[in-house]
Amino acid sequence: MFEGFAQVWTPVALSKDVRDEPVGMKLAGTKLVLFRGQDGKVGALVDRCPHRGVALSLGKVKDGCLVCPFHGWRFDTSGRVTDVPWNPDAKISQLRGTELPAAEAGGLVWVYTAPGGRPQSGPSAPAFLSRPELRISGFSVEWKIHWTRLMENMLDWPHLPFVHESSIGKGMRAKADSRMDIHMEERETGFLSTITVDGELQPGSLELRWPNQMVLTIADGPRTLIMMNACIPIDDEHSRLFVVTARSFLKLAPFDYVFELSNRRVVSEDRAIVGSSWPTAVPRPSEELSVRTDGPTLAFRKRYFAELYGSAAASAPGRPVPLRLTPKAAGASA
Ligand code: FES
Ligand SMILES: [Fe+2]
To answer: Is residue 90 part of a domain?
Structure first.
C-alpha cells in the first residue's frame, strides 16, 4: 500500500468538501474513503469493505458511521464495526475496517499514509492558511503525470520565463548573459528558496514542505498573495494538483472564480510541457544532466530517493475474524 509514498502526511481535500456524504478517492494506488463521525471529526478508511470487498464510498453516512452499501455493516471513524445486520450474535469487537490516521489543519483534510499508523506528530499546515484576514479558495486538477515530476516543477525557478512567458514569467525574460542565483534556507518542514538575478533580489519565495507541498509567496504585506500547491499521487501515472490561494484583496466570493481561472491557465501551461517528461517519474540525480539552478529540484529528488522511493506501508491490520458457522448453520447451508 502507498508504494513510494508511505508514512507521510498529505493533504487530500478541502475540509469544506467533506460533509455528510462519504468522499472516495485514490491516494498512491490505494482507494480511500473520508467521512465525518458523530463528533464532526474526519475519519479515513481504506475504501474496501472487509466483508466482501465492495467500495464503502458507495454507502451512506448515518449517525456518524459509514454504512456499507452491500450488507449494511457499519463502521465508525476508527474502523470499528458497530453493527452487523441480521447477526445480533456477531462478535463485532473482532471486526474492523482498515483505518488511516486523518486530521484537519488549515482548512484541509490530511491523511497519514500508513494503515493503523501512529504518527509522532500531526500534520503541519502552513501558517498562512489560518490567518483570518486572508480569503482562502481552492480547486484541484488531475494530470497524467507522476507526482514527483509535478513536485519538481513547483520548485523550479528557471522555467518561469519559458513555460510561462505570457503569464507569471512575463517580467522575467532570460538574457543570455544574466545569472540567476538560488538561495536555499533549511526549514523544519523542508527549505525556503529565493532568487537573485544579476545580484538583484527578485520578489517572491518558494517553500518546500515535505513531501508534496510547495508554498509560493508572491507578496506578503498590504497586498498579500500566497499559494499552496500540493502534488498528490493518485497512482504511478496520475496526480492531483491541489491549488489553494490566500489573498488580502478582492476578497468577495465571486473573485474566487477569477483567481481559479488565472491559476488554471498557469497550470495548463505547465501541463503542456512537464506532462511530456520521460521517464514518467523523476530518475536518480545522476541519470539527468543538472546545473547550478537545479538546486531546489535536486534537493527534493535526493530526499525522495533517500526517504520515499521504494517505501510501502504494511497492508491492513485488523482483518475481520471470519464468522464461524455453527454446526446447525453449516448443515443448513449445505
Ligand atoms: S460487503 Fe460490506 S457489508 Fe457485506
Ligand atoms: Fe510552472
So the answer is: yes
Helices 147-154 & 295-303, crossing angle to 10 degrees? 150
C-alpha–C-alpha distance, residues 46 and 237, integer Å: 20
Q: Is residue 301 part of a domain?
A: yes
Indicate if 137 and 111 belong to the same structural domain: no
Residue-level pLDDT at 334 = 31
Closest protein CA for atom 4 of ligand 1: 71
Find, among 263, 57, 23, 37, the residue nearest to 140 by Cα: 263
Question: Residue 286, exposed/middle/buried by CB under 10 A (0-12, 13-18, 19+)?
Answer: exposed
**Do residues 184 and 59 share a domain?**
no
Strands (E), 157-283: 180-187, 190-197, 200-201, 205-209, 213-219, 225-233, 239-247
How high is the pLDDT of residue 216? Answer: 96
Atom of ligand 1 nearest to the CA of 52: 1
* 83 and 209 fall within a common domain: no
Q: In this predicted structure, what is the pLDDT of residue 318?
A: 46
Cis peptide upstream of residue 119 (ω within 30 degrees of 0)? no
Structural domain containing residue 40: 9-119
Q: What residues pack around ion ligand 2 (CB closer than 5 A)?
A: 270
User: What is the CATH number for 180?
Assistant: 3.90.380.10
Q: Which of 119, 152, 170 is the last residue of a domain?
A: 119
Ranges of residues in the chain with a pLDDT under 70 are 174-176, 315-334
| pTM: predicted TM-score of the whole model, two decimal places | 0.90
Going from the Cα of 154 to the center of ligand 1, the distance in angstroms, rounded, reads: 42
Amino acid at 211: P
Residue 329 lies in a domain: no
- Rounded to the nearest angstrom, the distance between the alpha carbon of 74 and the centre of ligand 1 is 9
pLDDT confidence of residue 330: 39
Tell which atom from ligand 1 comes closest to the C-alpha of 54. 1
Distance 268 CA to ligand 2 centre (A): 9
Give pLDDT, residue 326. 54
Query: From the CB of 309, is ligand 1 less than 6 Å away?
Result: no
